[in-house]
Known about the structure:
Layout: H1 2-29, H2 34-42, H3 86-96, H4 102-114, H5 128-163, H6 168-182, H7 185-196, H8 220-239, H9 243-258, H10 261-268, H11 273-291, H12 293-303, H13 306-311, H14 317-326, H15 330-358
Amino acid sequence: MGAYITRRLLLMIPTLLGIMLVSFAIIQFAPGGPIERIIAQLQGSDVSAIGRVGGGSGGGDFGSQAPGAGTDSVNSQYRGAQGLDPEFIKELEKQFGFDKPAHERFMLMITNYITFDFGESYFRDISVLELIKEKLPVSVSLGLWLTFLSYAISIPLGISKAVRDGTAFDTWTSAIVIIGYAIPGFLFAVLLIVMFAGGSFFDWFPLRGLTSDNWSDMSWPEKIIDYFWHLALPITAMALGAFATTTLLTKNSFLDEIRKQYVTTARMKGLTERQVLYGHVFRNAMLIIIAGFPGAFISAFFTGALLIETIFSLDGLGLLSFESIVNRDYPVVFATLYIFSLLGLVVNLISDLTYTWIDPRIDFERRDV
Length: 369
């Protein structure tokens, strides 16, 4: 097992390097960039993703440092740069690191990322790591509770559907699950706000944030209640479609195992249905569920909550990534991509190792990676 883990860890290096290289190359050909963004801000024609990007170490600092504004036009590679002093443009290039060739910038970025030095945001006066730490609690709350709730409901429901396959219970629950999967999460979120957050009917739940304004003055039981009170609507909106895949996957996996010969043999030996189901079928059927856990976890943790975060005013990593891409805040874009990719590779390795814990018959040492 030690050799297998070592090989997997070593394979993470070229995989991660390839992800960063492809992304970096795509960015080089993407229209616009941070310098164009500064020029647009100076000319008053800039529109940010959600209007939150302020004048940090990028845009705002140069609002009064454009001595050449209004001078003769210059031939520039940047859109809208006519009328600006060429020295000012060169100063911008130096600040953002664009005075170096692309391959040097990429090598410098990778060298820094190895030590988790992600630099500072272009448009916020804060380091990228501090910015991610600031947004992390929202994504942790949404991702972890959504994953827990989804699996806690989907697995028992899938088992019940498998045991009662073809009954009215199976038919009606399948219909409910599929309908829930078909409804977009953001649409259900709007419905929840209208119904329960002061829209048109009841005003039972808060509309924004993870905590109330008087959070610091609450006792710890009150803080726990307040925390889940704020999470109730976002998690419900996200979880509506999260049940379908895991529930149906669990059902089909258990059905496949129930129909195998060893189950018939166990029943002939006089074992009860509960002993057969949880003593023999459960371990084998759960392997495929575990295999899908990393993807479900990463999706819920990072990528599944952008619209939900926007609707409920939750300032998390999903919203941060979107804003950073639209606003060309490259340090934040590449840092989040690097962290998410690395975490995804590690979680996949942990998932594979969990296979051997659940079923000792699986031996990765005998397989080629």
